[in-house]
Amino acid sequence: MDPRPVSAPLAAALVVLGLVLAAGPALAAGFAICGVSGCTGGGFGRATDPGLTRLLLLATGVVAALPLAVHALVRRSGRLGAYALALAVVATLLTGLVIGSDLRGCPRNVSYETCVEEAR
C-alpha cells in the first residue's frame, strides 16, 4: 500500500474526467430508451429498447468510474476503489433518473408490457 496521502485535486480531476467521458453513453441511453422522437411518440413514434438502455446505463457508470478505478489500482487503495464503485452506482442511477428510465430499461411512464412490445 502506498503510504503517501491521496491528492484530493487529482482525485477530483479523475472524477470530472470520468463524468465527462460518461456523457457519451448517457446520451446514447437517452436515445435508446425511446428512440429519436422521444418518449412522447411524436414524429417517427416511440421505439423502446430496454436491453440496450440497461447496457448503456451500466456503461455510463463504468466509464464514469474508470479513471478513478485505474488510479485506485495503481495506488492499491481499497478506499479509492470503494469510491470508484460508489461513483459507478450513483452515475448509473442518476443517468437513469435523468433520462426517465425504470430499473428494467423502460420509460417510467410506459407499462413494461407496452415497452417490451414496442421493442420487437
The best one-word shape is: elongated
Order of helices and strands: HHHHH
The count of domains is: 1
Q: Which consecutive residue ranges, at least 5 long each, have pLDDT under 50?
A: none
Share of helical residues: 55-70%
| Oligomer category | single chain
β-strand number: 0
What can you tell me about this protein's structure?
The protein has 120 residues and is mainly alpha-helical. The protein has one domain. 68% of the residues lie in helices and 0% in strands. It has five helices and no strands. It has helices at residues 8-21, 23-34, 50-75, 78-99, 112-119. α1 runs antiparallel to α3 (50-75). The protein is elongated, with a radius of gyration of 17 Å. It starts with 7 loop residues before the first helix and ends with a helix. The mean pLDDT is 86.
Name its key features.
single chain; 120 residues; mainly alpha; 5 helices; elongated
Short description:
The protein is mainly alpha-helical and 120 residues long. The chain is 68% helix and 0% strand.
SSE layout and pairing:
Layout: H1 8-21, H2 23-34, H3 50-75, H4 78-99, H5 112-119
